[in-house]
Amino acid sequence: MTESSEIINTGLRGVPVASTRICLVDGQNAKLIYRGYNIIDLAQNATFEEVVHLLLFEHLPAVDELDYMKQRLAEECAIADEIITALKTRPADASPMDILQACVPMLANHDPEATNLSAEKASDTAIRLIAKFPTIMAAWHRIRNGREPVSPDPSLGHAENFLYMITGNRPDAEVGRFMDVCLVLHAEHAFNASTFSARQVSSSRSHMYAAVAAAVGSLSGELHGGANARVMQMLLEIGSEDAVEQYVESRLNSGGKVMGMGHPVYKTGDPRAAILGPMSKKMGERVNNTKWYELSEAVRKNTQEVFMRLKGTEIYPNVDFYSATVYYAMGIPVDMFTPVFAIARVSGWCAHVIEEQFAGAAPKPVLYRPASEYVGEYCGPEECAFLPMEERQ
Amino acid sequence: MTESSEIINTGLRGVPVASTRICLVDGQNAKLIYRGYNIIDLAQNATFEEVVHLLLFEHLPAVDELDYMKQRLAEECAIADEIITALKTRPADASPMDILQACVPMLANHDPEATNLSAEKASDTAIRLIAKFPTIMAAWHRIRNGREPVSPDPSLGHAENFLYMITGNRPDAEVGRFMDVCLVLHAEHAFNASTFSARQVSSSRSHMYAAVAAAVGSLSGELHGGANARVMQMLLEIGSEDAVEQYVESRLNSGGKVMGMGHPVYKTGDPRAAILGPMSKKMGERVNNTKWYELSEAVRKNTQEVFMRLKGTEIYPNVDFYSATVYYAMGIPVDMFTPVFAIARVSGWCAHVIEEQFAGAAPKPVLYRPASEYVGEYCGPEECAFLPMEERQ
Questions:
Q1: How far B13 CA sits from the closest chain A CA (Å)?
Q2: Cβ atoms A148, A81 nearer than 8 A
Q3: Can you give the pLDDT at residue A19?
Q4: pLDDT of B370 strictly over 90
Q5: d(Cα A274, Cα B330) in Å, to the nearest integer?
Q6: Active site residues of B
Q7: Residue in A20, A82, A91 nearest the CB of B375
Q8: What is the pLDDT of residue A307?
Q9: Which end of chain B, N or C, is less packed with Cβ atoms under 10 Å?
Q10: How many Cβ pairs closer than 8 A exist between chain A and B?
């Protein structure tokens, strides 16, 4: 291997891929905008169903539009019995994200128009996918525990229905709204890794199910959607406040990270954490256990102090930091945290697939086909001569 | 929508993503190189198993290394009974590529070390995936026809085994070798769309199954792996040589394309087509039906003439053009053509995932997180004011 064979990969950081009308992540000003609307306004005032409408149809719904969206989500939230049967073949210790990635292409099997790539069909497919994500994950959680899935209750809101199907109990209004706000906050985030995957897969004119399944795969990684589960695992590992200082010192002194702290884009704070922090406290109070919220606050403060001492800069909690303790207090299993992220983000993925396929300057989507530099100088500047097997070393 | 809201998307054409030691696509010189070796040498002299070793381990195998590779592929080619049971829940008209995309994450459910992201495990996972792709697709083809899957025969080569499992008959040596060469030719092609998807998904430290499932989704699109099936559909639609001229004229005069003709990178000919053209002729002769080969030659010549007249430049058949008629003469159903592509390309995907995760200049993979430009001026330069639903129009 020669010097020139070193592999360079910058992860396309700062390289613009496309323009988009869907989302602005303004890291300098700690702002997140969905189609013109500030995330803080949406989290305080809008439901997930309204945000789905905003993302797919470019405006917040009027009363009749929201009624129609709710009706379509209710009509589409059930999954085929054959998918339930397929889920029952899966081993109980399977990762829920692997289960979800397997189920999404199966949904295409039951949509006779899956390969209809018209714009009209695209928004309908989006609604089908968004409607079915909570059902799939809740069904899997019941099945792996040897219980029958709970059928969705069309009278409940999207967030409430997920909590109902996973626990078997209808949540009260405040907890249902907390989950609703979590879905609003996680719905969209511009060209993050999973969304980029969805757009990229759809650029070959694959159908939306194929693109969304790819995005589920991307989200499952620990550098992306897997982070919220890892925050909770960290808190469980630390266990008590007196162990925080040693944990944080040892992580940061060895060049490691504290999960959920810091963000590649938000340098002055993640606006979503500002909503989720107080929610974590309230959710802890509701279940008479604020231990995990308080422990997370100790980790945050300690990390901020040590980071300032070591690096001379501020560091802030990101969206994963407090969502972990919110979900934990709601009784959601830790390995379902990333699926909750997916249940929200599927709305953004679908909006981006629609933009990729129908809103481009060109009449058809442009296949993503980047360049690469070949540095495989195996036999020097010449091609390798093919040797019979017996002569190979 | 203002003027500035136009969506720009260049598909990253010409934008270098990374350097790579795996593959050179030299469009100007019509050359394809896998890790130093010219594709023509490999197609003439090497088996798919040798190419898998080359892609995964960076050198052609010596005798004992090839023996070990064959042994591992034979050990891993069976799929879990639970996956067969899951396949039996799928509707018979399901797209084989959707079935494949669903099965890949299911394989992770049966690999207790799926989330072990060490380099050693990565090459083992790659071998598992490569070994199982033909088994999955052949099993699905049998099941959808109401037949029991044929178990893989560990004494057969990889290509022969696929033909055996799909047809139930052991192919003769020449046909087996033709399929073997097809797999060699389709194994790898640098940063094509599906490979880019696999690398991109793995960059969040998702496991290899998640990344490969994403790549299957990308390959399924008609602008990528779906093209070989579309070539055959075109030939079946044209039907006879006397209809060629009108078909080609009408396609090219209306700004359309002739499937399988032309390539975004190979401007002086696709080296793979030079191998596949004669193979298509021989395969037709073997089954006493050269009609589809001859029809494809008429389409090629006619397209080249019309293209020269209209555009003043040459156009050449690509890899999909002749592989379509080769597979058809082998008796492979048209909707299994793209899965055959996947059975070959999974080797390249795995090599790229390994490079992405372990061969970077940085010690850890860099999450692909490109930039985008927000042009969503919904309410002018200001954010939109949140209105109560009753006031929305």
A1: 5
A2: no
A3: 87
A4: no
A5: 62
A6: 224, 263, 320
A7: A20
A8: 95
A9: C
A10: 431
